[in-house]
Amino acid sequence: MNNSGRRRGAATFLPAALALLLAYGAAAADTAQTPKPAGGRTTEATLSLGEAMKRLDGELLWDPMFQSGIITSNKHQAVFQAGAAGDSALILYDNKTLLNLPSPYTENGQLRFPETFIAALQSSIEESVEREASRLQIAAIVVDPGHGGKDSGATGSLNVKGKRVKVLEKDIVLEVSKALFEQLKKKYPGKRLILTRSGDTYPSLEDRVAKAHSIPLKENEAVIFISIHANSSFNKHASGYEVWYLSPDYRRDVIDPGKAGEAKEVVSIYNDMLEEQFTTESVLMAQSIIKQFDAAFGKELPSRGIKAEEWFVVRKARMPSVLVELGFVSNEKDAALMMDTGGRKRFADAIYNGIVEFVDRFEKSGGFTEVAGR
Questions:
Q1: The domain containing residue 115 runs over which residues?
Q2: What is the C-alpha separation between 220 and 286, in angstroms, rounded?
């Protein structure tokens, strides 16, 4: 960011950040004791602004009116207000933690940063980065357009300007999946994104799941699987969207017994624990997606809710996984929406927003079930 950009950012953001710091400081005043240097104020070695930011690999937003600033480094922030040389002050770290440190101050119009201030802030940032690196992360997302090639999936027909047009599930879900895939690639350039088919081909159900299982993962990494389909019914009035997950009554093998080493006797127990974890996370992902469908389509399409089933692609996926049914090709209103370019984009947007919400909550918590005491 250039200097003018920093000044504009400071003008709008710093007063609010400072107010938050002062509010935290006031709330902590009764319990947080600021240590007083023995024998009055003392001075210590200091760094210039350039030296301090180089040490932290950071950037400063500074407001000279409020004599306050925000240091940003590795996506972490510290809000401070300059004091006098030798003073101590409360520093608000990441909008939630108060650090009691020697205060930065101005000298001859230039900011000076005590060595202790920079060292403590550097240590806090390193601890945060290390903690985040050990958290569970969604490392890969698999988008699976159902059917394809010789398998058309559900079929229907639609009256377009007096002509009957064939409606094929395989074509609809491919277009929705490709639009979703492109959005996810832009949102998550650091994650591995897999589309099980990008054209009118027919990967088997086993091939689709095998692609997901072949993704190399570190110990703290996870992968999620989203299979996209369209529905059909003999009842032409059947309408709406729904999201499926694996029934809790079904038990799948989520760990490879061949990799269990000497602990083979506990494989079944551990497998059940992980299965419960994956089911919980699948339900939460389904809830996020159905919520976004509700917001996108309102009363235009009815919600058929979240359901449990033992679909092959969900049953065999050893990971949080859901199967999304967009609508009914056998219903003219549903089919018209799915055949419309704008309608397909809305379906893709809703699934995308649901996935982003799920991933964000998952990664912030380090895995939902860890928070619940896994």
A1: 3-133
A2: 22
CA dist 130 → 74, 118, 121, 190, 222 (Å): 11, 18, 14, 18, 18
Q: What is the pLDDT of residue 170?
A: 96
- Whether 324 and 240 have beta carbons less than 8 Å apart is answered as no
Q: How many CB atoms lie within 10 A of CB 293?
A: 25
Over its C-alpha atoms, the chain yields an Rg (Å, rounded) of: 27
Same structural domain, 66 and 192:
no
The strand pairing partners of 79, in sequence order, are 70, 92
What 3 state SS string does 258-324 have?
Answer: HHCHHHHHHHHHHHHHHHHHHHHHHHHHHHHHHHHHHHHHCCCCCEEEEEEECCHHHHCCCCCEEEE
Closest CA to 71 of 84, 85, 57, 87: 57
Residue 293, domain CATH:
3.40.630.40
Residue at which a domain ends, from 78, 111, 133: 133
pLDDT in tens, 243-284: 987 654 544 444 455 544 444 444 443 344 344 456 778 888
Q: Are residues 176 and 305 in the same domain?
A: yes
* Gap between the Cα atoms of 83 and 89, Å rounded: 8
For residue 335, give the nearest of 232, 226, 181 by alpha carbon. Answer: 232
Per-residue pLDDT of 96-108, as tens digits, reads: 888 999 999 999 9
Q: How many structural domains compose the chain?
A: 2
pLDDT in tens, 322-367: 889 999 999 999 999 999 999 999 999 999 999 999 999 888 876 6
Same domain, residue pair 161 and 98: no
Give the C-alpha distances (Å, rounded to integers) separating 268 from 7, 51, 154. 59, 56, 38
Q: Which two tokens stand for residue 149?
A: 């090639």
From 133, 163, 194, the end of a domain falls on 133
User: Of the candidates 89, 61, 90, 88, which has an alpha carbon nearest to the alpha carbon of residue 73?
Assistant: 61
Closest CA to 176 of 356, 324, 360, 29: 324
Largest CA distance in the chain: 94
Instruction: Give yes or no: residues 252 and 140 share one domain.
Output: yes
